[in-house]
Structure formats: structure tokens, C-alpha cells
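Sample entry follows:

_____
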Amino acid sequence: MRLYPTRAAIVLVAAGAPIALAVAVASPGLWVAAAAWVLMSAGLIVADALLAAPPSRLDLKLVTPKVMGVARPEPVRVEAAFQGRRPRAIELALGVNARLSAEPARQTLRLSGGRGEAAFGLTPLRRGEGRLEGVWARWRGPLGLVWLQRQAAGAEPIAVTPDIQGVKEQALRLFTRDAPFGMKAQLEVGEGSDFHALKEFTTGMDLRAIDWKQSARHGKLVGREYRTERNHHVILAIDSGRLMCAPAAGAPRIDLAINAALLLAFVSLKLGDRVGLFAFDSRPRVVSGVASGANVFPLIQKLASTIDYSTEETNFTLGLTTLAARLDRRAMVVVFTDFADPTSAELMLENVARLMRTHLVLFVVFRDEELESLLAGEPQDADDVSRAVIAANLMKQREVVVGRLRRMGAQIVDAPAGELGMSLVQTYLDAKRRELV
């Protein structure tokens, strides 16, 4: 419980000062009037506190989710109930730790019959353990001279995980029957070289698909139907170093990479490939073997949740060399990383080149929308011109690195943050259709 005066009480007490000064100047013998004013104000404040609803009569309850996906807002409900005397309205505030953000910071709740319910928008900012430190409620006395406050303990910690719900929504859009043209990942037939079935020849089929022996046996033209190859190894290599913790489109790059990697893992497992996860910064952090089947996805999701934010520089030599040593057959290696200077980019290119001698590499580039906005914006002063020049140099260095990767044979995924997952899946499907693995 906490009790303190309102702004109205402070104004009431302060208003007596000029009156007391005027009385003292006019008649020094009536200085007692100043003390009387103070006593009267104090009496009104005490009376207001006694007439107000006591904090012990308020029951506060928090209703929160147990698991939340990073950057995916969800409501948190605060239920308030008074017994006996009750105010007409109370103010509520929610305390959270650094991994969460609550909106609005404070709100007024109108009570009906002494009860009410308020909703706060809770947004996870970073993966880990989100904590609600507590909920604060305060209300005025009937005279409006005193605030009474009650604090309730927070709820159980909230597990902030990668945005699995967003991954599921994207996956459903990919596998639904009415998916946009060119994004139907379920259409495996005719996209590869593995024999699938025989079917009656129809107009529009490739003449080279006709099976003449089977046609002679059945007395009609029969064609071969193929499907995409299965059992490819797909390795998701995620750089979790310092640069990947920088924000992009309002979220850390590492979180965007994990979301895109989980979407690709889901699609790959559905299409019969084998998926493995590898994360590294100054040294390998998460290393898993490859596995297949839809029941493997929860395990990959759990491993991805353990990838922490790091402040260490990425050691591409140690990380990619360790990864290459663990691969015993040709695989599709999807590298999620970022670079800020030519030195780090040169080390990355050197080790990616070694990896590409045996494996197919899909390189995920995070499009820096902030640099693009600085470059495209109209300058207003000299500082804007300087920023634009620096942004242009950084973009040029980035284009040089991406160009070298393309010449080396890497498949590049370059898309805005909101479209990264879908673009990665399309590049993966295209690589399978072209039999690049």
C-alpha cells in the first residue's frame, strides 16, 4: 500500500502561502491563521484517505500467455475487483523487463459494480524469458486530494520463442490448394527426375515422357510421371555473432534468420529432405545431425530457441570449417550471415569458396532498408548529404561482395525482411527443380 497527495492537494496547501503572507503583513498578530490553514488542509487530506476505498479491498489478477513469439503482439488482461467501498475509476500500469514492451504505458479503467477488466498489448522484443514485474493500480479519494496505490506481484515468466505462429501461417499459405501461382510447394510431380507413376498420355505432356513399352502393353499411349528428388541434406547455418544482433525492420537480424530457417525446415521436411541446424559466432554454438520426417520439426524449433544473442565477432574460419568437416555427403548449405567491412567479407568469401567445392550454398542477404532509405531520401542539409555518401559506399561494398558470391556459384536470396522466408523457400524449390544438389 502507498499513500500520497494528488496535485489538487498540493495546490490547496500552496494556496494558503500567499494568504498567510498577506495576513502577516497586514496584522502580524494573526499569524496563527497560517497554521490553521495548514491544519485544515491536512485534515481534509486525512479525511479523504479515510473515506477512500482501502487498498486491501482490491483484488488484482493478471491473465497472460505462457509462450509468445518474438515480435508478435498479444493481449494481457488485468482483472480488478473491489469489495465494499469502491472508486468509479482506477489507473493501471504494467511493469515488464527488457525483453517485453507494454502498450499503453498507463490507462484508466472505469469500474462497473466495483469490477473491471483492462487489456495491455504485450510485444516480445527479444527471445528468452519475459517477466511481468508487477501491476500497479491507483485511485483518488472522494475529495480528490489523495492517491491510494496497490501493487500486485507479476505472473509466471513468459517464454519468448521464435515466431512459430508466423512460420505456420506462411507454411499454410505455401501448402494450401489456392496458393498463388508459382508458390505451390505441394506440387512435387513433374519437378524432378525421380520416377513417380505411369499415367495416360494427354495433350500438353512432354513427348519424351512417353513409355513406349508400357504403351504397347496397354494398347494406348502411357507417359512417365516424375517428382522432385528426396532425401537431400539441407543444413541451416546461422551466424549468431554481433552483427546479426543488429536490428532490421524493427527486429534483430538473428530473429528474422531463425524465422526464415524454421519455415525452410518445415517445407524441406514436408518434401522428404533431411534437415540439420548449425549456429556459430566465435565458435560453434548449436550443432545437430540431419533428420527427416515432420515429427523432427519440434526438435529443430527447440534447438533454434537456444540460439542466444551474442556480442562476439563471428569466426567464419572456425565455424564453416567445423561445418564442412561434419558433412559426409553433398548438401544444400543455407548460410544466414551479415558483414560490415571488407575484411570480414573477405574472410567469409574465402571460407564459403571452400564450402562450395563440394556443396551447394544458398546465401541469405539481409537487405538493409535503412541504408536504402538514406540513399533514396532527398537531402535537407549537409549532414543528410554525408549520410547519403556513406550509405552509397556501404551499399557499393555490399554489391561487390554479392557479385563475387554469384560468380562463385552461390545462390543468392536477397529480399526485404518481411519477404525473406518466402523468397528463401522459392530459391530452395528452384534449386531442387534444377537438380543443383
Observations:
- Residues 180-191 have pLDDT under 50 and may be disordered.
- The first strand starts at residue 2 and ends at 5.
- The CA atoms of residues 368 and 436 lie 29 Å apart.
- The two ends are 67 Å apart (CA to CA).
